[in-house]
Amino acid sequence: MNNYINRSSVAVLCAMMTLACSANTDTIQLVTPEAYSSNKCWIDQNGEISAFLVLAEEGNMRVPYLISARCMIEGDYSSQGEAVLHHLNTIRLVDSRGTLQRILPKMLISNNLRTDQPVPSSGSELYYFRAETERMPHSNKNVYVPLKIHQFTKLNMPFEKFLALSKNDRISLLQL
Questions:
Q1: pLDDT at residue 11, rounded to an integer
Q2: What residue numbers bound the domain in which 107 lies?
Q3: What does each C-alpha distance from 44 to 24, 70, 140 come to in angstroms?
């Protein structure tokens, strides 16, 4: 038996350590509807928003909506999907600097707040999103502008399927 590690073993070991260190180690917390807007549900240990992002469509325009990747809402809802739909506007994302637009150049991303925004459909595209943001002054909403996106992963899952995920399913999704 050899007492050394070959280069391919070192490469595999380094890759595993990198993955383990960069994986989302936070667990998803169950919170009340009132606590869902708190920083603990949206801001990770690096001060970045960590969320699922779904794009609603209106013609060629896409409107981003965020769903917390850190919390799920518990309360008087028939399902987690219903809870998500009731709280879809908790945190708003406005791409006024074009940061998201540069990542999705073939789509036209809405860059302002509108009162008549479309909502996601069952087939809307879903992503995992982690970014440095800046809070935008707004009288009665939590609105953020992405400054630098650190992770943007298409999940290849329609919004309808995401709405049916359990807490454990979401945790598994974050570990991909």
A1: 35
A2: 25-174
A3: 9, 8, 23
**Which helix H or strand E contains 128, and what residues bound it?**
strand 126-136
Task: Count other Cβ atoms within 10 Å, centred on residue 85.
Answer: 15
d(CA 67, CA 69): 6
Q: How many CA atoms lie less than 13 Å away from 97 in the CB half-sphere? A: 13
Residue 33 counted as domain residue: yes
Asked whether residue 67 is domain-assigned, the answer is: yes
* Residue 166 resides in a domain: yes
- Contact in structure between 146 and 97 (CB atoms under 8 Å): yes
| Residue 176: band (very low, low, confident or very high) from pLDDT cuts 50, 70, 90 | low
Kindly give, in sequence order, each residue whose CB lies less than 8 Å from that of residue 91, ignoring residues fewer than 6 positions away: 37, 42, 49, 51, 66, 68, 142, 143, 144
Q: For residue range 109-135, what is the model confidence (pLDDT) as tens digits?
A: 988 877 778 889 999 999 999 999 998
Alpha-carbon distances, residue 140 vs 3, 51, 129, 151 (angstroms): 64, 21, 24, 28
Kindly state the DSSP code that residue 26 receives in the 8-state scheme: P
* Reported pTM: 0.81
Domain annotation covers residue 3: no
Q: Which residues pair with residue 64 across a beta bridge?
A: 55
How many separate domains does the chain show? Answer: 1
Sequence letter at residue 53: L
